[in-house]
Every structure is written in structure tokens, then in C-alpha cells.
Amino acid sequence: MTTNEYQLGFGAMAANFGLEKRPYGNGIKYNFPPSWENGWIMEMNAAKGLFVSSAWFIPTKTLSYTMEIEKPCMLIFCVDCGDITFTQRGKSAKHLTPINHVIVNPKKPLKITFPANVHTCYTCVLVFEEFIQKFLKDRPLDPPFSMDNLACLQETHYNTPNITLVLEQIRWGVRSGDMPLMNFECKMGELLSLIVCNTQRERPWIDNRRNHVTWENEQKTYGVKVNIDQDVLNPPSMIAMCRLAEMSETKLRRSFKQLYHMTIFDYIRTETMKRAMMFLGADELSIKNIAEKCGYESPSKFTAAFKKTHGITPRQFRKGFGL
């Protein structure tokens, strides 16, 4: 039995959970019960086949919902916090850590789970291939776009500061409730173009003995990255990373840079600055507080690192979103 995300977006999941529905600006707000320490999902149906949403809730019980969508589509997540899990029969569970994620509809039952008593906060774009093909009608890509190709995307194609910035713009646009829906269509086009640009910018594989990373070492290096992602604000020491990867420091550094096109230090700094961008949405945190959370003793050094990653200062970011 198929579910109706094509017509309702996350409203289909909200209906399954029995959430209260009410108009909110140009979209809809689904409220969790008051006993759940407040919580909501805000969503805009920006165009046929395009939904943008922002969610904040702490469920008092584990919530599970199974999507079964016939039409080709994908979900682009920017996770602030939580332990969202996607499971599909015959495949390993996918845990959405606090980074960007792309989930391509497998056209089979796909279960999403939110654990009890875990603060969950995310931004999500649900886009169907129908919308993308219509958007690209007069903007052909080479090679032509196919949703099937997106299943082959690497994390380096979508977990980048430029895409995080667009998803943050979408988040605050949804939460304000008054952004024109056309703006979200443009933002989806921007996301698509950035993903294409990131794939084209990827350095060509240099296949020689010095730079080649074996499948075994690729898995070990990936394990190190996953370990960093679990708590990027408190990353493991280099000694701990080498022990986990069972590699020398030189070999681990070389393997990481070959696979992710940046050094381990640059990766940690980039991910930290993406977390900093999310912290800037919290009114109770000053820039000094955020600098300290990100491991910077000096707000000026934090500001310099933030600007190097995002091209704007923390104050400019807050001012731009009216925060």
C-alpha cells in the first residue's frame, strides 16, 4: 500500500502520528501534543512535487513511520540533532548524524524512526523527479539528469558548506512562514546546481601506487570519519584515529585526503563551522558562547574561521536572517 507523500509531503507522516494541523503563513504547522514539551513540523508545499520542512520535537515515545512512495523522489536532510534512522529490508540501517544527507527513494518500503526522549531538529527538502525535470526543461544538463544517478552521489557532493547555507536559508524561510513559495523553487534549483557543481569539481582519481586507496583502507578511513561525525566538537585524538584505522599517521592522513579531498584538520574545521551555523539560530547563545562550544578561546579567531568557511561573519549571518 503506497503512502501519499506526493500530495501531502510530511503531512502524510504527521497524519499517521495524529498531529494537530493548522495553517501557518504560506504553509501548514503540525503540532505535537503539549505533554511532549512542545514540538512541531512546519511545511510548505512550494510547488507540485516540492515540499520544504523544518521540525523541532522531543517525542515521549518512539515514533516510526513507513514511507512507500511510487514516484521517483529524494529527501535532502540537514540534521541539527537527533538520532533519525532509516531502515529498509535487506539493507543496513542509516543513522542521520548532524550533517547533510541525501536519501533517494528506493521505491520500496522505507521506515523512518525517531527515538523516544531524544531532541530531534532538522530541515528537509522532499523533491520529486517530476519537479526537477520540469525545472530543467529549458536548462539541460550534460549528462542529462536522472534520479537513478543521485543514488551514486558521494557525501562530498552534498555535505558541503555551500549546501548547508542554502538549507539554513530554507529553514528560516519555512519558520518565518511568509517567504514567497517561488523562493523555495529557486532554492531547490540552487541545491541541484551546487550538487552538480560539486561533482564536477571533484578532483580526478589519480590511479598510482602512491595515492591508490585499497577497499580495505577505504573502509577503515570511513570508520574514522564516522567516528569524527559522531561528535565533531570533541573529535578523537590523532593517536586514537590511527589506532581505530590501524594505520600510521602518514598513511591515514594521505588516505583521508585522497578520499575526501581535504585534510583531517580541514574536515573537522569545516564540520565545526557548519555546526556553528546551526548554533547561530539559538537566541540564547552569544557569539562568544558559540565560539567556546566550537573550541575557540577567542571570538575573533572563531569569526575568522567562520568567514573562511562560509564567506560571511557570524554577525552578518544572524543579521541576514533577522536572528
UniProtKB/TrEMBL annotation:
Pfam families in alphabetical order = HTH_18
Q: Which residues form the HTH araC/xylS-type domain?
A: 222-320
Check the record and name the SMART domains matching this protein: HTH_ARAC
For this protein, the record's SUPFAM superfamilies field holds: Homeodomain-like
The alphabetized UniProt keywords are: DNA-binding, Transcription, Transcription regulation
Q: InterPro entries this protein is in?
A: Homeodomain-like_sf, HTH_AraC, PchR_regulatory_protein, Tscrpt_reg_AraC-type_HTH
The entry's protein name is: AraC family transcriptional regulator
Q: What is the lineage of its organism?
A: Bacteria, Bacillati, Bacillota, Clostridia, Eubacteriales
